[in-house]
C-alpha cells in the first residue's frame, strides 16, 4: 500500500519531467512568434494558477485578490530597475518577499474570517491597493512605468529580438510552481492545509494550528505569484495599475485551477493549457468584430466545461482519483 | 492514588444568561473509563468542549497531567495528549480514510513515512484497514465513527474524549464499538465518554458522573448511580423515583 502510494508520487514526477522536456523542445520547431507568445502566456498563467491553488485550492481560502501580489511583483521589479538600476532578478526576489510579508500582514486580521467574508475581504483589499497605485505619483500613478530597453541580456532580463528566453523562464517558473506543490502535497503542510479546508474545527482538535497553516499557505502562494508578476512586467515592458493589478487578473488566476481541478496537483496546468490558448484564439479569430463574440464563445465554453465536469477536468486523467472513488 | 490525569476545578460556563456548566469539579484517574451521562441539555457537550479547549471556561480551571491547561488552545491540548471525537462526525470528506488519520499522526512526527505507517497501524487497530484508500465521504455512519476514533488515536493521546460514539448504531455495531473502547483502554489510554445508551455504557465504564442542569448530580460506581433516586428523578421525573 505504501509502495503503491510512493509509486504514484514517482509517476507524477516522471510525467512532469517528460512534459517539461517535451515543452522545452517545442519552440525549436515552432518559430511563429504569435504561437510562441501564446505558449509563454500559457505557461505563465499555469504557474500563477498553480500558486493560487496552494492557498485557495489546498488550504481552501478562496482569494480573489491575488492580482495585488501579481502587481506588487511587477511594480517592485520595475521601480527598482528604473529608479535605482537594481537588476530585475533582485526585484523579483524583493517583490516576492514583499508580497509574502504583505500576505501574512493581511492574513493576520483576515484569516479570522470564514467563507464568503474572507473572499470579500480579499477583493476589497486588492481594490484599495489598486487605487493607491493609481494615485501614487512616484510610481507613475495611472500613467504607469515604461521599462527602458537597455539591450538584450539575461542579466537585465530583457529580450527584444526573440521570445525564446521568456519562454524558457516561463517554463522554469511553471516547473518550480508545480514542483513546490508536488513537494508540499506530501508534507505536514499539505495535509494540514487539506484538513483546514475540509473542517477547521476537527483539524484544530487534531493538533493542527489552523491560523499558522493559513499564514504559511498565503506566504508561499503570494511569493510565487509575485515572481510571476515580475516576469510579466519584464515580458510586456510597460506596466500600469490596470494592466497588472486589475480585478480580471485575480479571476484569470483562479479560472484555470477551478476548471482543471481545484486543490489538485495537475488541475491548474491542465486548465491553463486549455483556457489560455482558447482565450487568445477566440480573441484573434472572432474578436475583431467589435461585438464581443469572442467573450461570448469563451464564456460559453467555460460554462459547458463546468457543467460537464464540476469537479475539474483533471478527474478524467487521474488514476489515483479513480482508485479513491471506488 | 496518584494525581488524577484530568481535573476540572470549579468550572463555570455561561452563554449570555444561560448557565451551561456551574461549578463542575470532576476528576479522571489514569487508566480509567469514565462515563459522563445526563439528560439532554445537562451540559455534557459544553464540559467536553471546555476540556478539549474549544472555548475557555468563564471561570474555573482545567488541570491535565499535573499542569494547568485552561489558557491553552485546542491544538496545543492535543499536543499535550488530549484526543477527542465529535458528536456530529467531522471527517475530512474530500480526503481518503488513510489521509484523515495521517493528519492526526503528524502531531507526533513530521516524517511522512512514519506518519503513514502509524496511520496504517491505527486503522488496523480500529478495524478500518480495508477501507484505507476510500474517500471519507463514502464511509457508512458507523465507519465514520470509527474513523473519528482512529484519527484521535493517531495523535497518541493520554486522554481520549469520546462524544457519543456509540449513539445511533445498530446493536451489533455498538457491541463492536464497546470492544474497541475496551481495547483502547488496554493500550493504556484513559477514556472519558459522553453516552446516552445506558445499557451499553454502564457495563463498560468504571465510574459514572451524572450531570443535570449544568451541575454534577451524582458520581460513583455505575451500578449505584443508576439506582440513585436523584438520577432517576432527573431522567424520568419524581413519580418514578418513589418506586425505586
Automatic annotation (TrEMBL), chain A:
Q: Provide the membrane topology annotation.
A: Multi-pass membrane protein
InterPro entries the record matches: ABC_transp_permease, LivM-like
* Official protein name in the record: Amino acid ABC transporter permease
- Highest lineage ranks of the organism? Bacteria, Pseudomonadati, Pseudomonadota, Alphaproteobacteria, Hyphomicrobiales
Provide the protein's localization: Cell membrane
- Pfam families in UniProt: BPD_transp_2
Location, primary (coarse class): membrane
GO MF, one example: branched-chain amino acid transmembrane transporter activity
This chain's source organism reads Bradyrhizobium valentinum
From TrEMBL, chain B:
Sorted keywords for this record are:
ATP-binding, Nucleotide-binding, Transport
Phosphoprotein listed as a keyword? no
Role played:
Involved in beta-(1-->2)glucan export. Transmembrane domains (TMD) form a pore in the inner membrane and the ATP-binding domain (NBD) is responsible for energy generation.
Q: Name one Pfam family in it.
A: BCA_ABC_TP_C
Can you supply one Gene Ontology CC term for this chain's record? Answer: plasma membrane
Any single GO molecular-function term of the entry would be:
L-valine transmembrane transporter activity
CDD domains recorded = ABC_Mj1267_LivG_branched
Which residues are in the ABC transporter domain? 6-238
GO terms under biological process: D-alanine transmembrane transport; L-alanine transport; L-isoleucine import across plasma membrane; L-valine import across plasma membrane
Can you name this protein? ABC transporter ATP-binding protein
Q: Which organism is it from?
A: Bradyrhizobium valentinum
Q: Does the keyword ATP-binding apply?
A: yes
